[in-house]
Task: inverse folding
């Protein structure tokens, strides 16, 4: 019997890391492309490109089941790479597992992790600290809140498309701005999905992550890291510089939460240390590939391959990734850091020293050079196509209650 291949839902830089991890092991990899984000398809390790028929947050169950039958890929491992594709797979878990080996838990577990309203409640029940957060159902309820400003507005789930999720958070300086921004958010989201949250001070030295390959709530391989730099700087959508680090205080709470939620596949648990109290507070749980997962092989934890082995029932030895490995995405880190250096919030020498070996990146690779050559053209194409993509999605109200 031939070894199972892998179908990766997505073709961005996170997907590229998965394709390389598996392709280097001789595993056949196909990538499904949403709109024009096709960077991973330029990799030598992607054997075939699939055009996804719509957005990843639409129901394409029949498409995938038909693909498995028509292309004789039943039994392949399915890797969603973003919030929307992972949410889709989780919602249709029962149907899709008839044709594929899945790396995503069923929707009950997935939703309990990625919906901050649910995961914060679970965390607090487990004695894990979370940021002060308020949930409201109307503008009148917001007006009645006695808040200490500034605060942030953010969606409770990343599996939506709207102006808030596009920037991740909205910074709110005072009560008048809050009422205006909340009313604006209510136009594109159900109000119960809009979170008001305290701002935890401090920079990247306080941004902590526990990342793991999990089997039914059991992390069989993990690493801890500092997410030192991100874009945007204050409330980042994505990390630009990460270093694996020994952070013992986040291991036990992260593993307790993963076990409680019975999570499986690729899981990242994000925390922030509050410098006012020293408390480590839960921020997010990502049940899919996180941006810097390609640091794994250099740290001794090749996460996609380990999850592939778990999905196919192969044995996996327990391992903890080593500290001291750095990861940078230069196309976003250089412009972000240049602004910090120009503003005298970072010294040039310190920045250059941060790029010392061992240093990994998500794009450039000696054995796979074409994606690095294509990164800029792909970014330009995405920027040009984004207004059209948003227009296609603007006809529906997103963030609906489930």
Result:
């Amino acid at each position: 019997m031939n070894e199972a291949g892998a179908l990766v839902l997505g073709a961005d830089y996170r997907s590229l890391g998965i394709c390389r991890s598996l392709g280097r092991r001789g595993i056949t990899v196909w990538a499904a492309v949403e709109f024009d984000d096709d960077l991973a398809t330029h990799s030598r390790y992607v054997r075939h490109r699939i055009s996804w028929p719509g957005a990843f947050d639409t129901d394409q169950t029949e498409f995938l089941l038909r693909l498995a039958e028509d292309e004789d890929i039943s039994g392949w491992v399915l890797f969603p790479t973003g919030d929307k594709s992972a949410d889709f797979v989780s919602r249709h878990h029962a149907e899709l597992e008839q044709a594929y080996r899945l790396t995503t838990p069923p929707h009950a577990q997935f939703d309990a992790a990625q919906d901050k309203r649910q995961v914060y409640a679970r965390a607090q029940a487990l004695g894990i600290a979370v940021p002060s957060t308020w949930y409201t159902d109307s503008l009148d309820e917001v007006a009645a809140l006695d808040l200490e400003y500034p605060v942030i507005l953010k969606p409770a789930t990343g599996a939506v498309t709207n102006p808030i999720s596009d920037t991740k958070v909205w910074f709110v300086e005072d009560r008048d701005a809050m009422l205006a921004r909340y009313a604006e958010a209510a136009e594109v989201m159900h109000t119960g999905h809009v979170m008001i949250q305290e701002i935890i001070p401090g920079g990247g030295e306080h941004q902590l992550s526990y990342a793991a390959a999990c089997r039914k709530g059991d992390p069989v391989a993990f690493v801890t890291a500092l997410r030192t730099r991100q874009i945007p700087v204050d409330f980042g959508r994505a990390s630009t510089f990460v270093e694996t680090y020994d952070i013992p205080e986040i291991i036990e709470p992260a593993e307790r939460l993963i076990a409680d939620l019975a999570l499986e596949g690729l899981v990242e648990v994000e925390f922030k240390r509050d410098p006012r109290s020293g408390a480590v507070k839960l921020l997010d749980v990502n049940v899919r590939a996180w941006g810097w997962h390609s640091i794994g092989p250099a740290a001794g934890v090749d996460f996609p391959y380990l999850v592939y082995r778990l999905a196919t029932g192969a044995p996996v030895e327990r391992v903890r990734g080593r500290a001291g490995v750095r990861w940078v995405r230069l196309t976003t880190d250089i412009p972000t850091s240049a602004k910090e250096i120009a503003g005298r919030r970072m010294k040039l020498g310190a920045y250059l020293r941060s790029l010392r070996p061992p240093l990994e990146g998500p794009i450039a690779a000696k054995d796979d050079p074409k994606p690095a050559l294509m990164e800029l053209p792909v970014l330009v194409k995405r920027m040009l196509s984004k207004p059209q993509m948003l227009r296609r999605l603007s006809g529906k109200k997103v963030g609906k209650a489930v």
